[in-house]
Amino acid sequence: MWSALDVFHSSLAPLLLAIATGFTVAGCDDEFLNRISLEVLGAGSGSGRVTSLEDAVPIDCVIVAGMVRGSCSREVDEAGAGGAFSLMAEPEPGSVFSGWDGCNEFVGDRCQLSFEPGEDDVRFLVTARFEPDVNDPCNMTYGSNPGYVLCSQTPTSCTFYTLLNDVDSCNTRCESAGGTCLSSMPDTNDTCVPGGPGTCDEIVGDRLCECSKP
């Protein structure tokens, strides 16, 4: 007849044998855990977002003109059997993604990071570069054209100021970039928060233009 104490002792036998012979019980050995450190940096004068495609290393990083904010660095434990995870870059309206630095492999907007079995203290430093889209009429309103100040933009349109206070200046600027002038009016309130160089308050006799994207 087996007693409850006998059953308890028999259940401990495999564990005691493993300890006595030097074997490791699965799930109890820190040797099988890697420490992964990942930091995302930004570069370029455009804007965009970098996110991880796996939950193991949660990254959701916003990049604006090389500056980062949000979840841009993580340290996590990961199984040491070897593996990989990926990051994805997505440009904001008016910007384009122009490349990665620090990836083991990359294709377009995807960056793959990998580590070897048993590798300790895994560290990744990745840079994502975003630049203004030169084919976007909203981005063609500043930079080499100091008389134009970009104020805001959406996926389909943008708003900008021009020093030339006439309708033709808006039409010409929008059409030269493949867009259409949606509205044009003299600015009297300086209500716009600019997205490009300069400030709207410094502009005298300016005109507010709304331009569609092609």
Describe it:
With 214 residues, the protein is mainly β. It folds into 2 domains: 32-132, Ubiquitin-like (UB roll) (Roll); 139-212, no CATH class. 13% of the residues lie in helices and 44% in strands. The protein has 2 helices and 14 strands. It has a 6-stranded antiparallel β-sheet with strand order 4-3-2-6-9-8, with no helix packed on it. The protein has a 4-stranded mixed β-sheet with strand order 5-1-10-7, with no helix packed on it. A hairpin with a 7-residue loop joins strand 2 and strand 3 (60-64). The relative contact order is 0.14.
What is the tally of beta strands? Answer: 14
Annotation field: number of helices: 2
Structural class, judged by helices and strands?
mainly beta
What is the name of the CATH class of the largest domain? Alpha Beta
Give the percentage of residues in beta strands.
35-45%
Major pleated sheet: 6 strands, antiparallel
CATH topology of the largest domain: Ubiquitin-like (UB roll)
| Coarse shape | elongated
CATH architectural type of the largest domain: Roll
What separation lies between the terminal Cα atoms? 86 Å
How many domain modules?
2
Instruction: Write out the strand line-up for the largest beta sheet, numbering strands in chain order.
Output: 4-3-2-6-9-8
Give the radius of gyration. Answer: 28 Å
How do the SSEs run, as a string of H and E? Answer: HEEEEEEEEEEEEHEE
